[in-house]
Amino acid sequence: GPRIFSGVQPTGHLTLGNYLGAVRRWVEVDQHRGDALFCVVDLHALTVEHDPARVRRLSRQAATLLLAAGLDPERCTVFVQSQVDEHVRLSYLMECTASDGEMRRMIQYKEKTAEAARRGESVRLSLLTYPALMAADILAYGTQEVPVGADQTQHVELTRDLAVRFNQRYGETFVVPRATHPEVAARVMDLQDPTSKMGKSGQGRKTGVVYLLDEPDVVRKKVMRAMTDQGGDGGVVYERGARPGVANLLDVLAAFSGGEPGRLAEGYASYGALKKDVAEAVVEGLRPVRERHAELAADRGYVDAVLRGGAERARGMARPRVDAAYRAVGLLG
Ligand code: ATP
Ligand code: MG
């Protein structure tokens, strides 16, 4: 099968967006089809204001959640980015391949820079160079497919550009990867602000974000209070542009129950009835993950052992290619 790589940042508690956009597919599809690696990308979490103890806690929690969601360490490699030095080693070569201008064009950089400015915080240089580290994460493993949410398309495009450029300058070294996305819910929106992506970091707006570990009643409350659009009396229609709130709920419902969002809409006469079904679908869909997480969280030795084994395997896979890249650019290596 294809070589597959993807990751999640320990910048906050994992959300419904992370699950539907990425993690669920890693579990259900990617680990079965390919030679897959899934990573808690903790170095990326240092690109924004962070609390060391919280990042450490969230890293372990994210890894535990990946296993709880169903990643099987016998089938794929689960590890933590900072435990494999090759990511940082290669990241520097990516910084030497990329231009300042193409980094500044990244939407995520612009958005997170604006957010920092609103909070009166300075922007870390590593936020700008983030895509170089992400390119290194992907390219170190000869990755062919990168299963991500729609918001990461631009970073994977840049990764492709860097791979092609490096290969042209220094000789064939990297595989040129491509992004893959789920058919529905590739971009889950914030329930209170359905024109913005549901995201785990950032402050406020928490009521618009469903976390994987939210209690069922909390999930129900958040969904029932989701912002819907004007004009619900005329029934429920699926219109991403004009009715983003309702479209988002229909996408989430479709992701859990199957079927097409536009067709599902036809079955509802009111927003209230739709929300009720969405709430139950999310509660039931996340229940096994939450329950398994509680079991695994009690067995820290097991999770740590999985991560140790994963890091060792990942290191072995990345080392030869990163060494080759070092030699290719003219370092003694
Ligand atoms: P942050 O706000 O710190 O960037 P995040 O919620 O965007 O957090 P990431 O760790 O950046 O989470 O992304 C992990 C994976 O989840 C990526 O593949 C990303 O595309 C996907 N993802 C994140 N948010 C969503 C969303 N709202 N809908 C679908 N996929 C998402
Ligand atoms: Mg993100």
From TrEMBL:
Catalytic activity field: tRNA(Trp) + L-tryptophan + ATP = L-tryptophyl-tRNA(Trp) + AMP + diphosphate + H(+)
Gene Ontology CC annotation, any one: cytosol
UniProt keyword terms in alphabetical order: Aminoacyl-tRNA synthetase, ATP-binding, Cytoplasm, Ligase, Nucleotide-binding, Protein biosynthesis
Enzyme's top EC category: ligase
InterPro entries given in the database record: aa-tRNA-synth_I_CS (IPR001412), aa-tRNA-synth_Ic (IPR002305), Rossmann-like_a/b/a_fold (IPR014729), Trp-tRNA-ligase (IPR002306), Trp-tRNA-ligase_bac-type (IPR024109), Trp-tRNA_synthetase (IPR050203)
UniProt record, GO biological process: tryptophanyl-tRNA aminoacylation
UniProt cross-references to SUPFAM superfamilies, sorted A to Z: Nucleotidylyl transferase
EC numbers: 6.1.1.2
Pfam families in the cross-refs: tRNA-synt_1b
Motif ('KMSKS' region): 197-201
Residue positions binding ATP: Q9, P10, T11, G17, N18, G149, A150, D151, V188, K197, M198, G199, K200, S201
Motif 'HIGH' region positions after renumbering to this chain: 10-18
UniProt-annotated binding residues for L-tryptophan: D137
Annotated function: Catalyzes the attachment of tryptophan to tRNA(Trp).
Subunit note: Homodimer.
Family stated for the protein in its record: Belongs to the class-I aminoacyl-tRNA synthetase family.
Protein name: Tryptophan--tRNA ligase
Species annotation: Streptomyces gilvosporeus
Name of the gene this protein is made from: trpS
